[in-house]
Amino acid sequence: MNAFFLLVMAIAVSMLLIPLACRLAPRLGMIDMPDPRKVHALPVPRVGGWGIVLGCVTPLLLLFPFDPLLQSFVGGALVLFLFGMWDDAREIGHWPKFVGQFIAVALVVYHGDLYVTRLPFIEPTTLDPALGRPFTMVALVGVINAINHSDGLDGLAGGESLLSLVAMAVLGYLVKSGLAVGIALTTIGGTLGFLRYNTHPARVFMGDAGSQVLGFTLGFLAVYLTQVASTAVSAALPLLLLGLPLADIVAVLFQRIRGGMSWFRATRNHVHHRLLDLGFSHFQTVVLIYSLQAALVTAGVLLRYESDLIVSATYFLAVGALFVVLVAGERSGWRLRSPAAVSAGAARSEPLHWLASPGPRQLVLGVITAAIAAFMLGAAVWVGEVPMDFGIVASLLAALMLVPLLRGRATQSLPVRAAVYATVAFSAYLLTRYPGPGGAQALTLVTVLVVLVAVLLALYIRFMASRQFGATPTDFLMVFGVLALIAFGSIDVRTMETVQFVSYVITLFYACEVVLGGIGSRWHPLHWGTFCALLIAGLRSLPWT
366 near 518, Cβ under 8 Å? Predict the structure, then answer.
């Protein structure tokens, strides 16, 4: 099964499951109430972990051989998911959570037989299993709690984890580890589906059910990549791959111990709290942390074969500089003096009167809609081949769309909305992977069409939108993804093809967001264009066509 299909399946499961879980959250008591330590002012459902975990686990169970190592990963993830749900509903405290965490990591260490044998600076000496196994259990529990405690702002833990997962997926690809790539991509998909609802102001939190499994997954992959998949990489590489959450949890524990407080008492001394106290807005704080995390994980990929000393020095210099700056700012009483809340919705100038009038707005929206529909239909008709697995999924999506379309309820239908986004992604992949007649010349026309959409989209958002569209931290993650592909362009001759695919998807996803947000008609051409594209793709995948 190809990587793209894994990613899309995970995103779809996550995006479809979270709204359903939100309806159950009040009955289950999974609501995060505001308090002085938190930054949200309204109750928020804590069920985002359902989408992250089941979005990750479902494709793995369906498409991968269920060997002992995968059994241990899935079993450990589900144990943490259940304990996390218990805590999200009942606030069970740290000791029962530790029980769940040690059960989960014991499955990996003793049933999956995955544990640390290589430590930085002591090679070629290897750890005896009697030391390596308990060390791995403690280390994995530490990573789980590091990610759990970083979940303090909208999108923060999910975004930090996503950046680490991208780097781990790249490393898994480089060492030809299908398991590492599969786990990383499905977790990326589950997290992307969650971030769709978690951008500030968040409509849902991941809760312990999500943050613990993310930490478990990152720890599992860090051990597997450096201890099993490739023993040529630096043993210190997990420092860079896991990045800022590790340094943050160590600094927090140090401050609690120095202050004579309980190790487990929740406090406002994480990096994100300290940046907020220095006057940074929510948006600025998240993007600053994302930026440092992105730098660390990128260094992890680029320095993977360097010595333990170079890898460790890079990590400690980066995080050391961060904490030096934080302490200096706190002790000097420095505060950011920018206008309050330079955030996702930075102020924009008033729209030109004639551009804001209904006529131009509807014209631009109509052209964007037609371009998206043409992109999907053109892909379904023109591509040289539609693989059977794509055709099956396309047929299922078309069937799911048919009833809401005929009943005139497509506008409110979540499956229809998900089908639109899935069809854009399918179309972009098929266009770049299976080009039809004309090859590069035809793809140039497709690129021109997407550039036209991007220009009209910028014009609409800048001058015509009835509601303000601002940059969000999730947009930063998208940009980082494209830049990472370009930076790692030497990895594979088809990387630029991937960049083209990602550029198409990002542009058209934003275009779909704008168009779907303004649909008021029962018979909107974007819905029917999507349905026809899916139907054609399904028919073209048949062996006799």
Answer: no
Tokens of 273: 């709290």
Residue 252: CB partners within 8 Å, gap ≥ 6?
A: 149, 267, 269, 270
Spell out the residues 6+ positions from residue 440 whose beta carbon is closer than 8 angstroms to its own: none
| Cα–Cα separations (whole angstroms), residue 245 to 80, 84, 159, 293, 523 | 19, 19, 12, 9, 48
| 445 CB-contact burial (10 Å; exposed 0-12 / middle 13-18 / buried 19+) | exposed
In tens, the pLDDT along 508-526 reads 888 888 888 766 566 788 8
**Is 199 strand, coil or helix?**
coil
pTM tops 0.90: no
434 close to 384: Cβ distance less than 8 angstroms: yes
CA dist., res. 153 & res. 40, Å (int): 9
Residue pair 375/449 in contact (Cβ under 8 Å)? The answer is yes
* Residue 2 neighbours by CB distance under 10 Å: 12
Strand-strand pairing, 31-32 and 44-45: antiparallel
The DSSP H or E segment spanning 45 is: strand 44-45
DSSP state of 489: G
CA 170 from chain centre, in angstroms, equals 15
Residue ranges of domains in the chain: 3-235, 354-540
d(CA 272, CA 252): 11
Q: Which helix (H) or strand (E) covers residue 353, if one does?
A: helix 353-356
- Alpha-carbon dihedral of residues 523, 526, 527, 532, nearest 10 degrees? 110
Q: Give SS3 for 213.
A: helix
- The pLDDT tens digits for 262-311 are 676 666 788 998 999 899 888 889 989 998 999 999 899 989 999 999 99
The sign of the CA dihedral 347, 352, 353, 359 is negative
**What does the alpha-carbon distance between residue 369 and residue 524 come to, in Å, rounded to a whole number?**
9
